[in-house]
Write a structure and sequence with these properties.
Elements: H1 2-17, H2 21-32, H3 40-47, H4 51-63, E1 68-69, E2 77-78, H5 84-99, H6 101-109, H7 114-129
Antiparallel strand pairs: 1-2
Helix pairs in contact: 1-5, 2-4, 3-4, 5-6
C-alpha cells in the first residue's frame, strides 16, 4: 500500500509542477548533484536543449520554488530545499521516473500546455477569493 501512496504523490507532484520532460530532467539533475551550482549552458548541454530553453526551464523551476539561484550571480542555479518531505518526494520521483520512464513521459506530454494551466489556476484563485 505504501508504494501506491508514494506513486500517487509522485504523479500529483508531476502533474502540478512539471511542464515538460526537460523540466523534470533539470530538476532531478539539480537534486541529485546537490550542492553543485549549475550554469544555464551546463544545464542546456546536460538535458540536450539550447541555452535559451534551459534558461526558461530554470527560471520556471525558480518561480515554483523548486530550485534557487545565487543572488548577484546570474546563471548560478542549485537545489536548495532543506525540507525533508520535499527531499523524500524527489527521491521517490527519481525512483519512479527511472522505472517508469514511458508512463511518466506520457503523463507529462498529455497535460494541457502550461499557459492553459496557469490561466485555469488564476481563475481558480480569483474564484476562491470571492
Amino acid at each position: 500500500m505504501e508504494g501506491d501512496t508514494r506513486r500517487l504523490q509522485v504523479d500529483r507532484f508531476i502533474l502540478a509542477e512539471i511542464d515538460s520532460v526537460p523540466h523534470l530532467e533539470a530538476l532531478l539533475l539539480l537534486f541529485k548533484s546537490r550542492p553543485k551550482t549549475w550554469s544555464i549552458d551546463e544545464m542546456g548541454q546536460s538535458i540536450y536543449v539550447r541555452s535559451e530553453v534551459a534558461a526558461r526551464i530554470l527560471e520556471s523551476l525558480v518561480q515554483r520554488n523548486l530550485i534557487a539561484t545565487i543572488s548577484g550571480a546570474p546563471g548560478g542555479f542549485f537545489y536548495s530545499q532543506d525540507d525533508e518531505y520535499r527531499n523524500q518526494l524527489l527521491e521517490d520521483v527519481d525512483a519512479v521516473y527511472r522505472k517508469e520512464v514511458v508512463r511518466i513521459s506520457s503523463m507529462i506530454h498529455s497535460k494541457a500546455p502550461a499557459g492553459v494551466r496557469d490561466f485555469a489556476r488564476a481563475f481558480r484563485i480569483k474564484k476562491d477569493n470571492q
